[in-house]
Structure formats: C-alpha cells, structure tokens
Design a protein that fits this description.
Layout: H1 14-20, E1 28-31, H2 38-46, E2 52-56, E3 75-78, H3 85-91, E4 97-103, H4 108-112, H5 139-145, H6 148-159, H7 164-175, H8 183-190, H9 199-215, H10 217-231, E5 232-242, H11 245-257, E6 265-266, E7 272-273, E8 276-278, H12 287-292, E9 300-306
Parallel strand pairs: 1-2, 1-4, 2-3, 4-5
Antiparallel strand pairs: 5-9, 6-7, 8-9
Helix pairs in contact: 1-2, 6-7, 6-9, 10-11
C-alpha cells in the first residue's frame, strides 16, 4: 500500500496573490506567512538574480518546508512573529520593500496535528494552540487562569459568540472541579450551551477566539501592517488574504484610512487621505478552488498600492 505524507498547507489564491505583488525582478519582497512555502516559492520563481525575498514564520515546524529554498542566495528565512517585521528589516539593512504578502489563514498542518489543540475534531488533544511553541501562554493557561469576565470578552470579541457570558460561566464552574487541559475537557464543559445543529460552527468560533488570544493575532496584525506601510516604497504592493471579519476589517481600514481604526482624514477638497490605493475589488476563490480546498472558502484577498508621497486615495471601495 502506498501512503503519502500529509500536506502541510495548500496555498490559497496563489496566482491571484502573487500577481497582485506586481513583482519587479530585482525588487525586495516579504512573505510574512511562510507556512508550507507555496507563496514564497512562486515569488522566488518570478525574481531575477538581484531580487530578494524574506519569509517569516514563528512555527518551528515550518522550517521543514524549506527544501531547496535554503540554498537560494536570494532567500532569507526569518523565524519570528511578523509583528517584528520592522526590527528584522532593520537588522538585515533593508530600508524599503517593493511588496509584502500575508496569508493570515492557519495552516492545514495546525488543524490536522492533534498534538497542537487547534481543532475540536480530536478529543484528547492538549489545549496548546501556540503558533510558537517556545513561548507564551497556552489555551489551557488562559482557560484555567483568566477571570470569567476576561473569558467572556475573548469569546464575544474574537469569536463573536452571542452567549459568551454563559460559556465563560460554564468554563469557570467546570474548572473548579477539574482543570481544563484537553479539547475533550473544554467541549464537555460547554456542551449543553451549544445546540447540536450548530455544534461545528459554534465550536469553531470558540476555538478561533482562544487561538486569537493565545497568539495575540489582532495586535500582531496591527503592528505588522503599520510596519509594512512604513517600509513599502511608492508603487509597492500590500497583498493580504484574510479569513474572518475581524482581521479583514483591520486590513480594510488600513487600506482605506491609513490606520487600523478606520479614522479617515480628508484634505481641503474632502478627499480621503490614505497612503494606499486599492488596485481593484476584493478577490475570492473560484468555485473550483473552493471545491479542491474547502478551507479556502472564507478567504478574501485585498491588494493595495502605496501612493507616492503627497498623493491621496479617494477610492471608497
């Protein structure tokens, strides 16, 4: 019997996102979400001998996907959270970049690795959920240490769960008799609050909320976008693939207003001031891609170009 190794991650909107970078062969680019390496390999394939690519990933497991890339002198792997983008570019002596790509989705590898606790599909997975296994609180730490109010805020803000307070109360009650250490412990503690007909959707929201808190995803995204805005040279491209409304709203605000809060400033003529101009409408996966890779279904691709200094964008898309 022939067996195949599990796929680490299928790159989403591969051609559309890399096309969006409008790659200049001798330019400098950053892929802040290396993962399985699909986007990075495509970018390198379009670079000339003088081009450079920096790929970020904080998960040690991603390093196994380097392969032949490690021998390419144009490529540099940075094992770090992308929130430190500015610091690392300064370290490598890079003042400006020509494009940045971010695929904010969680790799299939993480969902399918039962030792990481990212999915409720595995009953006895340890509640870890850290992208970087070397540091930070685990999901179990948060569930067992946070106050009821803190847990409710996380579930409401990051999972958009309407019964956030009841979920938090059930978890606090359950942990009083037994620490919540596995996915089974967590699901058992909230089972009666999740209707069977919506079980998968509600559980996915609960796990999403915990993952976002564990990895400080919203704060990291905001810091990365601010650094990218400062690093991109005029004409450079910002290319971001989002998977849920929370992160998409942040990216949309940065493109439309130049800040993650969406506070829009206007010039004398009432035109919106922003360092970016969208290159087109939001791009979503084709029906064919969604069928081949169901995890791409919620993906949204936004592409924007950095304006010349002094220019403004009055695009209201």
């Amino acid at each position: 019997m022939v067996t195949t190794a599990p796929v680490y991650h299928i790159p989403v909107l591969l051609q559309e996102s890399v096309n969006g970078l409008n790659i200049q062969p001798e330019g400098t680019y950053v892929d802040v979400t290396f993962g399985g390496g699909g986007h990075s390999k495509e970018i390198l394939g379009r670079l000339g001998s003088g081009g450079r690519l920096f790929s970020f990933d904080q998960d040690a497991d991603a390093e196994a996907n380097m392969g032949a890339l490690s021998a390419d002198g144009r490529w540099t792997f940075v094992r770090s959270n992308f929130r430190y983008l500015k610091n690392w570019m300064r370290y490598y002596g890079v003042e400006h970049i020509d494009g940045l790509l971010a695929d904010l989705g969680v790799s299939s590898h993480h969902f399918d690795d039962e030792t990481r606790g990212f999915s409720f599909r595995f009953d006895d997975s340890p509640l870890d959920m850290r992208m970087n296994k070397r540091a930070g609180k685990t999901a179990a730490d948060i569930l067992n240490e946070y106050s009821e109010e803190q847990l409710a805020d996380i579930f409401y803000l990051y999972g958009e769960l309407k019964n956030a307070r009841r979920l938090a109360a059930a978890i606090v009650k359950s942990r009083a008799s037994e620490p919540l250490l596995t996915t089974r412990h967590l699901m058992n503690s909230v089972q009666r609050l999740i209707p069977r007909e919506r079980e998968k959707k509600e559980a996915a929201k609960l796990f999403q909320a915990l993952r976002i808190e564990v990895n400080q995803e919203m704060a990291s995204l905001k810091e990365m976008l601010a650094s990218a805005t400062a690093l991109l040279r005029p004409g450079g491209r910002l290319v971001v693939i989002t998977y849920h409304s929370l992160e998409d709203r942040i990216v949309k605000n940065m493109i439309k207003a130049g800040n993650v809060e969406g506070n829009r400033e206007q010039d004398f003529f009432g035109r919106a001031l922003s360092p970016f101009a969208p290159t087109g409408k939001v791009i979503t996966p084709t029906a064919e891609e969604q069928a081949a890779n169901p995890r791409s279904r919620s993906a949204k691709l936004r592409i924007a170009e950095k304006c010349d200094q002094g220019e403004t964008s009055d695009d209201n898309r």
